[in-house]
Amino acid sequence: MEVINAIGRRKSAVARVYVSEGTGKITINKKDITEYFPSAILQYVVKQPLLLLDSVEKYDIKANLDGGGFTGQSQALRMAIARALVKINEEDKKSLKKQGFLTRDARAVERKKPGQPKARRRFQFSKR
C-alpha cells in the first residue's frame, strides 16, 4: 500500500494526514499524539474513526496541523483520518458518514459588527 493523504478542516484549523501501513503510531507535527494532545479526551476524538473500524493497530499516521485551537485541531484531524480511511476502503464510507466523521462542521466565530461591543451584543440603551 502506498501513502494515502487527505485533508480535514474545522473552524480555522487545517489537518493534512498521510496514512501508511504500520503498527498504529500517530505522529502530529513531528511529536507523538500523547505529547501533542495530553488530554485523553482529545486523543480519543482523534482515534474515533480508527476505533469504529477496528484498525487502530493497522496504520501509521503522520499529520501536519495548522491554525485553530486544540479542540478544532483534534476534530479536523479526525475528519482527515476518516477521509483517508474512505480512500483506502470505499465500503467504510457508510459507517463513517453515519457517525458524522465525514461532515464538515461549518460553525465558526461570527464577526464583530461596527458600533457594537461584540457580534450580537449591543451597548446598553439609555432613554435619558
UniProtKB/TrEMBL annotation:
Q: Identify the gene encoding this protein.
A: rpsI
* GO cellular component terms listed in the entry, alphabetical order: ribosome
Regions of compositional bias (Basic residues) in chain numbering: 114-128
Alphabetized, the UniProt keywords read: Ribonucleoprotein, Ribosomal protein
Keyword hit for Metal-binding: no
For the region Disordered, give the residue spans. 106-128
Q: What is this protein called?
A: Small ribosomal subunit protein uS9
Query: Which family, according to the similarity comment?
Result: Belongs to the universal ribosomal protein uS9 family.
Q: Which Gene3D superfamilies match?
A: 3.30.230.10
**Record bears the keyword Signal:** no
**Top-level lineage group:** Bacteria
